[in-house]
Amino acid sequence: MAHPVTLIPGDGIGPELAEATRRVLDASGAGFEWEVVDAGEAVIDRYGTPLPEHVLESIRRNRVAIKGPITTPVGEGFRSVNVTLRQALGLYANVRPARSMKGLETRYEDVDLVIVRENTEDLYAGIEHMVGPDAAESIKIITRAASERIARYAFEYAVANGRRKVTAVHKANIMKLSDGLFLDSCRTVAAAFEGRVDFEDRIVDNMCMQLVQKPELYDVIVLPNLYGDIVSDLAAGLVGGLGVAPGANIGTEAAVFEAVHGSAPKYAGQNKANPTALMLSGVLMLRHLGETAAAERVEDAIRGVIAEGRAITYDLGGRAGTSDMTDAVIERLVAARPRNEAGAGAASLTAS
Fold it and tell me: β-strand 246-250 against 93-99: which pairing, if any?
């Protein structure tokens, strides 16, 4: 039975990466019914917004979406489509794994971290205003309900995936009320998992130092929104950068999967962009859909291509184009699929 999935190509290099990822997922052995909808800069003139209501309706209907990167203006223009999606759909958990890959030259080996970031409040709630002509104020929102919810997600993720420890990250030594509430919420949830998952906490600046000194000490890391955004990029840097960093946004009614990196408009249409991050986001989507075997095949194929090093993009140290790397991943996938799945993976494509 085919899975209905909303596909948002995105801006800049997004459409090339989305097409590459769709091709790989179609070759995975899982079946998909794609509904393609556009969001971002390209649709503003047509709809007056980068995020038309029919895009949200598509995700609510299908309950699962995968999207290419969408441009967010700096200091002006529309609010982040990513932030708006998370808030409109209640995608409260942002999950960003960071795992070492053979074939990538980094300073570390065997890094295996999962960043779990609260996705709906904190400074990213967007409550800010000018205070006179030369000062601005942003309001930081931390609630017990959202903090306990994300902590519970982190601990349940740890149990479900055989992880050993959850580390809560905060700045409660300075922000004793807001970050203090987050830490207290994490401690409350941790008590219910005592004996199954270890728990500790770290102050955010110390956590950054610890990660670059000894990342092997950490496992699942749960953070408020802003710290999660920053620390997840740091974790990506430990394993090769944003080009290999997948992301998942999980809610009770929907899930949206995306690459962590930006839209890189200057490289659009040049067949140069690295598709790894969005492909690995597709792996997270497959696992979310219960397609565990297909997820393992896709991840193994991606890792195999990178380890081999012959068909990788320039940022990974190779000379292949986006389509060439995609072809190499698909070749490995087809070879790895069981014979009784030879006809599986057929997909339909619905555009709107």
Answer: antiparallel
Instruction: Identify the pLDDT of residue 340.
Output: 58
> Is 149 in contact with 143 (CB distance < 8 Å)?
no
Out of 92, 124, 157, 218, the active site residue is 124
pTM: 0.92
Which residue among the candidates 176, 205, 214, 314 is catalytic per the annotation?
A: 205
Q: Where are the domains of the chain?
A: 1-96+245-352, 107-239
User: Which CATH number fits the domain 107-239, given the four candidates 3.40.50.300, 3.40.718.10, 3.40.50.720, 1.20.1250.20?
Assistant: 3.40.718.10
Q: Do domains 1-96+245-352 and 107-239 have the same CATH topology?
A: yes
Given a cut of 50, whether residue 84 has pLDDT beyond it is yes
Q: Is 124 a known active-site residue?
A: yes
Instruction: Give the separation between CA 158 and CA 120, rounded to whole angstroms.
Output: 21
In the CATH scheme, what architecture does the domain 1-96+245-352 have?
3-Layer(aba) Sandwich (3.40)
Task: Give the chain's length.
Answer: 352
Q: Which of 38, 122, 179, 229 is catalytic?
A: 229
Q: Report pLDDT digits (tens) over 314-330.
A: 999 999 999 999 999 99
Please state the rounded mean pLDDT for residues 32-48. Answer: 93
Query: Strand pairing partners for 33?
Result: 4, 348
pLDDT tier at 221 (50, 70, 90 boundaries)?
Answer: very high
For residue 342, what pLDDT is reported? 46
pLDDT in tens, 228-276: 999 999 999 999 999 999 999 999 999 999 998 999 999 999 999 999 9
201 is catalytic: no
Out of 38, 67, 171, 227, the active site residue is 171
Tell me what pLDDT residue 73 has.
59
